[in-house]
Amino acid sequence: MAEAYRAIPITERVYWVGAVDWTLRDFHGYTTRRGSSYNAYLILADRVTLVDTVKKPFKEEFLSRVASVIDPRKVEVVVSNHSEMDHSGCLAEVIEEIRPREVYASPMGVKTLAELSPSLSTGITAVADGRSVSLGNMTLSFMETRMLHWPDSMFTYLQEEKLLFSHDAFGMHLASHERFADEVDTAVLEYEAATYFANILLPYAGLMTKLLARVDSAGLSFDVIAPDHGPVWRRNPGWIVERYRRWAQQKRAKKAVVVYGTMWHSTEKMARYIGEGLSSRGVPAKVMAVDAFHRSDIAYEMLDAAALVVGTSTLNNNMLPKVADVLTYLKGLRPLNVVGAAFGSYGWSGEGTLQVNEVLKEMKAALPLEPLRVRHVPTTSDLAACRELGEKLADILNA
Q1: Burial code of 124-133, b = ≥16 C-beta within 10 A, e = fewer?
Q2: Is the pLDDT of residue 1 over 60?
């Protein structure tokens, strides 16, 4: 009987043995409309090695792929690049089943794995930054990448193949039978890679810039980049590296995102006029209602936008709950170099707009204009003021 799942060769001696999650639609509050994959890799060295495992429900798929190449009990070495449970969820069971001679993780990885599972509190060896491990005819070297995006994260580099196992870096959430980036539509790669960076890695953009500088100074070159999610980069891996370099710098385009929540469409009218004012001065504006767009869609648009304009009605002396949700999410992502503005309609007290302005201030957005508030339904002159706000913001971005 044929195996249910087969390994896919990456090189002559490295295989993908991960799992595809076709149904995943949420990852830490980030909408994953195309599902995801949990990538793990098998190295057929003298000392057979596994790099990472998979999310616990996918253990059998993972071991079936390994078994399509070699008896899993012949695996001597396991490397855990990242302790998050979508990569370590079945690690304890796999270790118990295949009995490898050695298991390696970063120093923080050893600590984190012990905290996640009592059975992982012993038997894991910490590999310091810069250390190498011989697999007989091949060599692994390790580089700690702390807080990209967990404290335990590390790169593993297979020297003879010039292959980087990059944990969550350079990945994306994409369920697919295509295992290589060159088999996937470029527009899909561009969107999913940017969405992943915007929603997962943006808070650590400064660390990413430093890491890429470390990689450059170390003189490392990659023929293949094998991340823990999404397709493998076997041709022109520099494509994704250069995008990470650009996104990490947070250089802003002349673009604005106008986000709003509305009760009786008054704040919506204001948002539309602000968007018209921005676009009339050559600044494209994405107008996004919180009832229609998910927070992660807004985060994607904010990856390169220079302005964030946020509007809300006032409900029970507060901004609308969905506006608060989006702002809390964006605040945690810590976008830099952004110009902000607040606006909104209200009936009685009008605190919502002022609260938005305070959150923008906490996000360290530049706030060159006073919050714009309108009582009840905006008049013709109120809407003219909205358009003028958009024009003024555009002039600031164009300066």
Answers
A1: beebeeeeeb
A2: no
